[in-house]
């Protein structure tokens, strides 16, 4: 192979890669520009400005812990990842409690399953024995 150009696929934490800007341009094209009419320069400028504003201020990023690039840059919402983690754990506990309350025997079999059924939730929660009265 010669000493010509070498294609480098965008990767995370590769210092010689343009992965951040490549990702930004791909999102701009595929999620915004290709979906709108670009018949005038004014329309293009408006669409690009709107996308940049939305990208920076409105759209949270998982890689930033649920924060927007603007929040990270300006140092706002520093504790958001922790608050989201607490809310996620609480929602999970509430969902389990709600589902157990709706189950036919208090938490082991869902509606429509008969006592002693073969369906188990991989060791999660108590399982009714076939002779146990669910009431």
List its salient traits.
single chain, 135 residues, mainly alpha, 4 helices, disordered C terminus
Rg computed from alpha carbons, rounded to a whole number of angstroms: 26 Å
Order of helices and strands: HHHH
Q: Low-confidence parts, pLDDT < 50 over ≥5 residues? A: 112-135
Could you give a short account of the major beta sheet?
Answer: none
Mean pLDDT: 76
Strand content: under 5%
* Fraction of residues in H or I helices: 40-55%
Quickly count the helices. 4
Shape: extended
Give structural notes:
- It is built from four helices and no strands.
- It has 135 residues and is mostly helical.
- Among the domains are: 22-59, no CATH class; 71-110, no CATH class.
- The radius of gyration is 26 Å and the shape is extended.
- The N and C termini lie far apart (76 Å).
């Amino acid at each position: 192979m010669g000493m010509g150009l070498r294609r480098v696929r965008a990767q995370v934490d590769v210092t010689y890669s343009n992965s951040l800007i490549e990702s930004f341009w791909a999102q701009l094209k595929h999620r915004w520009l290709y979906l709108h009419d670009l018949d005038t320069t004014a329309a293009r400028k408006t669409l690009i400005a709107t996308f940049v504003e939305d990208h920076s201020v409105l759209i949270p990023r998982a890689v930033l812990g649920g924060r927007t690039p603007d929040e990270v840059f300006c140092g706002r919402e520093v504790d958001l990842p922790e608050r989201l983690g607490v809310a996620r754990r609480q929602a999970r506990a509430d969902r389990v409690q709600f589902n157990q309350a709706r189950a036919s025997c208090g938490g082991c079999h869902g509606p429509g399953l008969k006592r002693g059924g073969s369906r188990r939730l991989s060791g999660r929660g108590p399982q009714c024995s076939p002779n146990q009265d669910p009431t």
